[in-house]
Amino acid sequence: MKHNVIVGIAAAAFLVFCSIAMLGAAQGRAGDKDNEGRAGEINAQEDRETASRIQTGFDYAKKQGITLDLKGKNRSLVGLGSYLVNAVGGCNDCHTSPPFTKDPYAALGAPKQINVDCYLAGGTPFGPPGPGTPVSRDITPFEDGKPAGLTLAQFVHVIRTGEDPDNPGMVLEVMPWPVYQEMTDRDLRAIYEYLSSIPAIPVNTCGVPSE
Length: 211
Hints:
The structure is a single chain. This protein is an all-alpha fold. The protein has one domain. 52% of the residues lie in helices and 2% in strands. It contains six helices and two strands, in the order H-H-H-E-E-H-H-H. It has helices at residues 2-64, 75-89, 91-95, 152-161, 177-180, 185-197, and strands spanning 100-102, 113-114. It has a two-stranded antiparallel sheet with strand order 1-2. Helix 1 packs across helix 2 and helix 2 packs across helix 6 (185-197). The protein is globular. Residues 5-23 have low confidence and may be disordered.
């Protein structure tokens, strides 16, 4: 009698354990599906945000009259690069002289038009004009089609280290490369792709000639 009771209790306990285990497994699978669903939603949102940045980059270029040469270029990277250069990096403020033909600083709500004729061609002095005064560089495509005459690897090296490409071993003192060096490789490649697609500025047009 006691033996039968013990066996019955053990069997009941086993069934309860199995039920709990199966319930836990089912909940685990449901949790995995929920996590996969959330991850999918996050990825989709990131894709939409990236697509929005790319389109914003192209919209800005069109609105400001910047002609882009997309031949042989990665279109998505060009659009993203435009967004990073024009809406995030503020490159126009230093690398275009003067930056605007319609100055948004003139008054609240004033229209903005960048100086397309000298867009990113450099020439802005950082101090009294004269020998030794740093001047912003021309970062448009040079005759070889490379922005500032740099390969992608050289461009990334300059941004990551701050080394002056014209004076090896010296540090760029004005450019905020310590900020930009934290950008991802993809972001830097996008910036390079965009700078490769903008118009080259004729020699001696805006103060700092392409060489």
